[in-house]
Amino acid sequence: MLKQERNGLMAMVASALLFAVTTTLVRIASNSLSGLFVSTIRFAVGGAAAIAWLRLSGRGFRVVNKKDWLLRGLYGSVSMTCTYMAIAWTSGGRSTMLSNTYPIFVALFGSLFFGSKLLPTAIPALALCTVGSVVILNDGAGYSLLGDGLALVAAMLAGMAVNHLKRARTTEDPVSLYLSACLFGLPVAAALAVGSGGLPARLTLVPILLSVLLGLVVFAAQILMTWAYKYVSAARGSRIFYLETVFAVGFGALIGERLKPAFFLGAAIIMGALWLDGAAQDRKAAKAAAQ
User: Domain for residue 130, yes or no?
Assistant: First the structure.
């Protein structure tokens, strides 16, 4: 294994852990603030951190692939907003598991819109992910179906965002790519928060500080993930992010979240489906490298 690939894998694991931490922070903050308001703060902090990073590093702001930079930001920001709303309306473990079906949509949309070849395992994997999601949606836990549905919408949008991210990553800096999502996400989340009455009647210090901390942790997680995708295949990277669900469920247990046995059955079906498709992609990559 090349040193850069090994470092990329380590960065992926660290990113998965940080994303699980953010899920828990969103869940705690959303007890006092709406998911849309939390998302607004997160985009504002992330955008400020990205601009400060670019200025302090002396790199400046430069975009070569404007189309993919813009579309990565558009799809990614709406996906992130849906994820935050889903976390606020359901449990961290459920929302993370359902939103992490995105690798199937990466493969599907890659074939439909980006010229990638759809492997034979993709269709049965998508079918199994659907079965697993239905099991989770109907596990009798009493969580909001709307929240679960938003997590699945987030997965579909993330499928488009990752394809644009992978294509843009050949020319664009990871921080500039993340800034795209923040620039799109901030006005969208803010407008939705105002329009839906999601602004808090009274600001309290602890939830605001948690939301600011959330923005900084997400910034670190996103930069690690974007940097790593230059050296790690989408298939291998997506399987590493299975750990995010494990971490999120563990952290959720610490704050009192409880999951029914049916959730774990559905999660096992989804993870098996993603492993099936990811293993096929790895075999394809190995075969191409040997030629």
Answer: no
